Amino acid sequence: MKHYAIIDLETSGGNPRADRITEICIHLFDGEKIIDSFHSLINPEVSIPYNITRITNITNMMVKDAPKFFEVAKRVVEITKDAVFVAHNVRFDYGFMQKEFRNLGFSFSRPQLCTVRLSQELMPNLASYSLGNLCTHLKIYNEQAHRAYGDALATVSLFKHLLSLQEATQIEQIISDQISEVRTPPNLPKEIYENLPDETGVYYMHNQAGEVIYVGKSNEIKTRIRSHCQDAHNKVRGLKMMEEIYDITYELTGSELVALLLENEEIKNLLPKYNRAQRRIKFHYGIFAEPNKHGYLCLTIGRLDGKRQPQASYTVRSSAEGALQRRVEQYNLCENLSGMTTGPGACFQYQIRICKGACVQAESPKSYNLRAEAAIASMNYGKANFFILAEGRNYEEKALVAVQNGTYCGYAYISVQEMNQSTDYLMDLIAPKAETPDVLNIIRTYIKKHPKEVRAYERRK
Q1: Which of 109, 159, 384, 451 has the largest count of CB atoms under 10 Å?
Q2: In this structure, are residues 226 and 173 in contact, taking their beta carbons and an 8 Å threshold?
């Protein structure tokens, strides 16, 4: 007989990477009755936002003296052991549970069953499958909606009703199909897949000889692997890759940015056979910045030859030309000094009084170069010297990515207490990495999405 750990969590927010559990309730159900229960408020060690308190009625004062998750973790393991993890929208509750155990240095893996999906299959065509609406539809009384105990008990009643809708053998088959619906690679041991975390990091698929045949990154590694398995059956190439997978390893990064940087680095170093798209990206042209004999900083386009360091790199010349044209217009740079027009004397733009005359030394190099340097900064990171402080692998650390003098230096993990240390101290922690055009694009894109994580600092002497 299967046992079902029917679970409901209340949390400080909706993101398992940033938010924490504030209340937990688990009813161990044997298919007929509840045989064990566990319920407790949890001190989340973070502040509960007011909008969450309005929904759950759980206040910071209520959880102040409640046990922290590590104090109840053993009980959670015991009551869910050898049971199916059941929840209404199981991905939400399971993701938070996995994250809490990951913070403690342990993995948490249980087969999962979602009562939302089970309800959709057994009771089709309802307007809504929220727990509240299903309770109304089935006349299930929930005295404490949006609290863990009340919602878990309501989910037990819902589950009992669902079990009654089919013959025992039929419902057993439906449940078994949902639990085991993921078709994993045929040569991958089930326990390896089951123990994959839904955390942020880089994963490696290995063949029988142990060679890495694919590298990927994800904010939810197990979910991404599941997606690979499901999508593989639509493509011959995908099926072939699945057949070659004998092991999957991973490195947790906490930070999405570090995962992107590590994935890019590993693909370049390992050259996995199934990462063709990332391997074949080639940059042929760059925008270079060099002073001319009069001291004016000239931005020009040239082929990458490994001898000069470009300010930005592009796959085709037309992309470089478009990028340079935009900077010339935005920062009022001279077309002659930017290689866009040729010939001695003043450029045409100076004749119509748009160019300020750097082409004929009518404007000082100091004045002109301020705009040229601003244009260069816009092609790089916008700032010359800065750190990015992103999420770490647990609540006690941060990921630190460093850019110095406009060049990516590398990354490190620091404790929260080290965040306010000196620039020299932090830079000494950085593991040096090489900057490539891919890295520049990764960091620039990330900064646009997460500007609040950027901290500028004074240039080191």
Answers
A1: 159
A2: no
CA separation, residue 276 to residues 66, 172, 390 (Å): 51, 43, 29
Q: Which of 256, 262, 264 is nearest to 15 (CA)?
A: 256
Rounded Cα distance between 213 and 222, Å, is 18
Cα–Cα distances in angstroms (integers) from residue 292 to residues 98, 176, 361, in the given order: 59, 73, 12
The whole-angstrom separation of Cα 205 and Cα 337 is: 50
Q: What is the pLDDT of residues 312-349, one digit of tens each?
A: 888 889 989 998 999 999 999 998 989 888 777 888 88
Tens of pLDDT, residues 431-460? 888 877 788 889 988 998 899 999 988 755
Encode 400-425: b = buried (16+ Cβ within 10 Å), e = exposed.
bbbbbebbbbbbbbbeeeeeeeebee
Instruction: Write out pLDDT tens, residues 187-226.
Output: 999 889 888 888 899 999 999 999 999 999 999 898 899 8
Cα–Cα distance for residue pair 77/62, rounded to 1 Å? 25
CB under 8 A, 24+ apart: contacts of 232-240: 233/183, 237/274
Domain extent listing, the chain: 4-179, 190-279, 288-304+311-379, 386-456
Question: For residues 321 and 429, what is the distance between their CA atoms, to the nearest angstrom?
Answer: 39
By the 10 Å C-beta count (0-12 exposed, 13-18 middle, 19+ buried), 67 is classed as middle
Whether the full predicted model's pTM is greater than 0.90, yes or no, is no
CA separation for the pair 231, 229 (Å, rounded):
6
Residue 256 token pair: 């999405």
Token digits for 108? 């948490």
DSSP string, 359-414: GGT-S-HHHHHHHHHHHHHHHTTSSSSEEEEEE-SSTTEEEEEEEETTEEEEEEEE
Helix, strand or coil, per DSSP, at residue 43: strand
Tell me what pLDDT residue 441 has: 84
Residues 6+ apart with CB under 8 A from 162: 115, 118, 119, 122, 123, 171
Directed axis angle between helix 256-270 and helix 437-449, to 10°? 170
pLDDT at 232: 67
Residues 190-279, CATH architecture: 3-Layer(aba) Sandwich (3.40)
Q: How far is CA 144 from CA 149, 196, 262, 398, in A?
A: 7, 34, 46, 37
Query: Which CATH superfamily hosts domain 4-179?
Result: Ribonuclease H-like superfamily/Ribonuclease H (3.30.420.10)
